Amino acid sequence: MGASWGLLGYGTIGSELYRQVALSEGVSERLGLERLPEFVIRTSGTWRPNDNLELEHDPAAVAYKHLDALPDVVFNALPSSYGSNSDAFMRKTLEMGKSVITAEKSALASNFDLYRDISDGFRRLGYNATVGGGTNLLTILRETFIDPSNVNELHLAVNGTLAAMFSLIGPMNGGGGISAGNAAQQAVQLGLAEPGASKAVDILKGEIEGDVPKKLAIIANHLALATDPAISPDSIPYHVEPDVIAEAIREARRRRFMASLYPIERDISVEKDNTLGGEVFPVGDAWQLLLGFQRPDHNPMIGTLTSATGPANGFVISLGPEGSDGEYTWSGPGAGPRPTVNRMLDDVFKLQRRR
Q1: pTM for this structure?
Q2: Cystine design at 313: which of 132, 210, 286, 333 (Cβ 3.0–4.6 Å)?
Q3: Is the dihedral of CA 345, 347, 353, 354 positive or negative?
Q4: Which domain holds residue 24?
Q5: pLDDT tens-place string over residues 124-183
Q6: Total domains present in the chain
Q7: Which residue intervals of the chain are DSSP H helices?
Q8: Would you say the C-alpha torsion 25, 26, 27, 29 has a positive or negative sign?
């Protein structure tokens, strides 16, 4: 008999996870899970697939009324808009000694220390899908960053919506682009932007100010760049004006939004001046973070990331004094239900090994 499981959220990520685990032959057995979940939280209420019983009409009710029946593993695929409900359920699940696999990033980004403590040092919390989708970015990055004193600079592309829209508007391979409005429509159709969003500037601004700081906070804490206190999204209060985004769209064939990490002693004034909307934030005592729209002709090192198409995420890192130990790149599909779910399922195996 496999471990019992539950599913929070039944949108693009949740429904794909249900399809793979509950409906695909042999997947649940391979993962060591029961075929059907104990419950699924949907927008219409809480549903129990085993007997097709609807438990509650309030989507958040299961977080407070069925705690004695929590399964062994809970997959959290709730959107960030669920906010406090998602956070409350994850905390309760972990405090009861159960395990959580999450793709939702808000709670972890704001409370990294707390979640480390209540999950026994992340032995019962898998969060690799919160950053980078299916790229396994967090795992590879930590291995590459194992000697921080040898890191010369690090550049990150961590938002699939930004990458996809800019590669459509201004492909850097010389191909024909499409209008920002059409790129916005495609982003919505592909599930890369919230339904109802229509203006490209509004979509991009929401991703830059909302999604990016959360992912960067998780990365900073994952790499232990600052330990007391932990980095939160509030530590990276990046703000970008709509006219800056509009200018970046006009220059889409030569600019991409990047997050660049440098040692604190490095003078990055030239890099900041060459970055559209460039702002610098301290990260702990040893690092500084530059955010904004950069050009690969000003920093050729980021060219491997800016030339990517679709919702790609990745990083390029320079090691050794002035990069003398080489540059290393990692990238992959950074958004979309299947890559994200694959990473969540990989976390099941990782938690089994940790325990």
Answers
A1: 0.93
A2: 132
A3: negative
A4: 5-132+338-354
A5: 999 999 999 889 999 999 999 999 999 999 999 999 899 999 999 998 877 778 999 999
A6: 2
A7: 12-18, 27-31, 62-65, 84-95, 106-110, 112-118, 137-144, 160-169, 180-189, 200-206, 212-222, 242-250, 269-273, 303-306, 337-354
A8: positive
Domain harbouring 16, CATH code? 3.40.50.720
Residues 144 and 93 in one domain: no
- For 281-316, b/e burial (b = at least 16 CB within 10 A) is bebbeebbbbbbbbbbeebebbebbbebeebbbbbb
Among 112, 320, 329, 90, residue whose Cα is nearest residue 216: 112
CA atoms within 13 A on the CB side of 15: 7
Residue 339: both structure tokens together: 């890559």
Report d(CA 6, CA 133) in Å as an integer. Answer: 21
6 and 40 Cβ atoms separated by less than 8 Å: yes
Q: What's the angle, vertex CA 53, arms to CA 98 and CA 344, rounded to 5? A: 35
Tell me: do 348 and 326 sit in the same domain.
no
The verdict on 49 and 116 lying in the same domain is yes
Q: What is the dihedral of CA 80, 85, 86, 90, to 10 degrees?
A: 160
| Distance (Å, whole) CA 71 – CA 328 | 41
Are 326 and 205 within one domain?
Answer: yes
Judgement on whether residues 183 and 309 belong to the same structural domain of the protein: yes
Instruction: With beta carbons less than 8 A apart as the criterion, state whether 45 and 63 touch.
Output: no
Task: Assign residue 168 the CATH number of its domain.
Answer: 3.30.360.10
